[in-house]
Design goal:
- The chain is α+β, with helices and mostly antiparallel strands.
- It has a domain at 9-123.
- It is 59% helix and 9% strand.
- The chain contains six helices and four strands.
- The protein has helices at residues 9-13, 27-34, 38-47, 62-71, 92-101, 105-165, and strands at residues 17-19, 22-26, 57-59, 88-91.
- It has a four-stranded antiparallel β-sheet with strand order 1-2-4-3.
- Helix 2 packs across helix 3.
- The protein is rod-shaped, with a radius of gyration of 32 Å.
- InterPro entries: KilA-N_DNA-bd_domain.
- Pfam families: ORF6N (PF10543).
- This is DNA-binding protein.
- One of its GO terms (molecular function) is DNA binding.
- Residues 14-101 form the KilA-N DNA-binding domain.
Length: 176
């Protein structure tokens, strides 16, 4: 790593967005992290377009871009309203493929960090999915308990009604 300053996890994870049901990063954010201009990143991708199929990288539609602008609080680093071209976004696999296109030491180290963050995000999603499943199971048990408690109370009500409506029984046996 040498003199390279590691980027913080927070900085990288704040640049991961959810578009088209995928975790993606904007071309301008990646260029910023790699320490290059966005146009240079776009040129490198354009020269190697066969390496970036639709599930690795895609260009946002105008509607998606406008929607992302409303979700992203700060619109600096090339994402102003006067864009000449719509931004491209890279999925996790696309970011990984960028490492074969951008060969500087900084790009390689940045890519390693980004891949680690993507892995952490994936693990967090898996962990929350497990939690959701556990919560659903607990809810189901509680619903069953509620039903059982209701049943017990209805039986108690029936018993108390029988007790109230019961006529005194005549005693049998020896009389004193």
């Amino acid at each position: 790593m040498g003199n390279e300053i590691l980027l913080s996890e927070e900085l990288i994870s704040n640049k991961i967005y959810f578009i088209r049901n995928q975790k993606v990063m904007f071309d301008s954010d990646l260029a910023l992290l790699y320490g290059i201009e966005t146009r240079i990143l776009k040129q490198a991708v354009k020269r190697n377009l066969s390496r970036f199929p639709e599930d690795f990288m895609f260009e946002l539609t105008k509607i998606e871009y406008d929607s992302s602008r409303s979700q992203i609080v700060t619109l600096k680093n090339g994402r102003g309203s006067n864009l000449k071209y719509l931004p491209s976004v890279f999925t996790e696999h696309g970011v990984l493929m960028l490492s074969s296109v951008l060969k500087s030491d900084k790009a390689i180290q940045t890519n390693i960090q980004i891949m680690r963050i993507f892995s952490k995000v994936r693990q967090m999603l898996l962990d929350t999915t497990d939690l959701k499943i556990d919560i659903l199971q607990i809810q189901k048990k509680l619903e069953n308990h509620d039903k059982n408690i209701e049943l017990v109370f209805s039986y108690l009500d029936e018993l108390s009604e029988k007790k109230e409506n019961e006529t005194p029984r005549t005693k049998i046996g020896y009389k004193k």
